[in-house]
Amino acid sequence: MTANRPYVLILFYSRHGATRAMAERLAAGVEACPGIDARLRTVPAVSATCEAVEPEIPEAGAVYATLDDLRHCAGLAIGSPTRFGNMAAPLKYFIDGTSELWLGGALIDKPATAFTSTSSLHGGQETTLISMLLPLLHHGMVYAGLPYSEIELMATTGGGTPYGASHLAGTRSDRPLDEHERTLAFAQGKRVARLALALEASRREAK
């Protein structure tokens, strides 16, 4: 990552690794666009035990997101496994704490997108993506799904929706991303990066 260069924040929660694999594929798509970086960040688990405390830095993988990661991003991609057709509680908990960014309009006119993974083929992928879309609209972000110019949307037998990339992880959460899912996640990262650069330039010109 280059200092002072715009970046797409890829913010995700992953329990068994499938959503993390998608996040890494989106990051590859972002970094295929010259002039912009990908920043991978995760969120800590939510515990029902009030005394439970997560370490400040995870033992492995992406570090935890801060509000400043979100405040200064040029674009955003958020990812979560499905929980009964909705985003997982840890990601929702983090987003619920972004009121100060909303009050200051920090994310207005920045592009955003979402991705998800489910255990079953009809496990609520599209409703989960829509659940992640709602707070982004409240923040004034510009949502970018996957257009049907991505021909894999018409061929996939696993994940893939016009609302965003998705993945069928299987009942044991051990099915790897197939070629269609990999291609769509990469395309989604590339699209949000391209839009981030264009909208950032537009915001600079408006100042």
TrEMBL record:
One of its GO terms (molecular function) is NAD(P)H dehydrogenase (quinone) activity. Its cofactor is FMN. It is an enzyme of class 1 (oxidoreductase). Its EC number is 1.6.5.2. Pfam families: FMN_red (PF03358). Coiled coil: none annotated. PROSITE patterns: FLAVODOXIN, FLAVODOXIN_LIKE. Keywords: Flavoprotein, FMN, Oxidoreductase. InterPro entries: Flavodoxin/NO_synth (IPR008254), Flavodoxin_CS (IPR001226), Flavoprotein-like_sf (IPR029039), Flavoprotein_WrbA-like (IPR010089), FMN_Rdtase-like_dom (IPR005025). Residues 8-192 form the Flavodoxin-like domain. Belongs to the WrbA family. This is NAD(P)H:quinone oxidoreductase. It comes from Halomonas pelophila. The lineage of its organism: Bacteria, Pseudomonadati, Pseudomonadota, Gammaproteobacteria, Oceanospirillales.
